[in-house]
């Protein structure tokens, strides 16, 4: 199973957002992860941030046919936010910040108050 590979963020004021695709309950959550310049974001989005007490990555969402592992709490939140006939834009720290890139993660964490 192919794991999602993050594209590098090249500007300190750029963030990643997720576009969740419409779907019915029971269907896999499909998203597109894209870059947006913080100073130019004009559309509304939902921001989600979680405590990391339960860091078990037990669920998956799908981005361009690649698996993105997420926690049960984030999975439940995305299911609740997903619309059946329209897209939804979401920023979720667990996905939109590349947790494996420690240097870039620190830059992104500095933007969290604004996000």
Q: Describe the sheet with the most strands.
A: 6 strands, mixed
Whole-number tally of structural domains: 1
Unreliable stretches = none
The number of helical runs is 3
Give the end-to-end Cα distance, rounded to a whole number of Å.
32 Å
- Neighbour order of strands in the largest sheet: 3-6-1-2-4-5
Description:
With 115 residues, the chain is α/β, with parallel strands linked by helices. It has 3 helices and 6 strands, in the order βββββαβαα. The longest helix is centred in the middle third of the chain and has 10 residues, at 72-81. The chain has a 6-stranded mixed beta sheet. The chain is globular. InterPro entries: HET, HetReg/Transcr_Mod. Residues 45-115 form the Heterokaryon incompatibility domain. This is Heterokaryon incompatibility protein-domain-containing protein. Pfam families: HET (PF06985).
Concise description?
The chain is of the alpha/beta class and 115 residues long.
Index terms:
alpha/beta, 115 residues, globular, 6 strands, 29% strand, HetReg/Transcr_Mod, Heterokaryon incompatibility protein-domain-containing protein, six-stranded mixed sheet, single chain, HET
Blueprint of the fold:
Blueprint: E1 14-20, E2 30-37, E3 46-48, E4 59-63, E5 66-70, H1 72-81, E6 88-92, H2 93-96, H3 102-111
Parallel strand pairs: 2-4, 3-6
Antiparallel strand pairs: 1-2, 1-6, 4-5
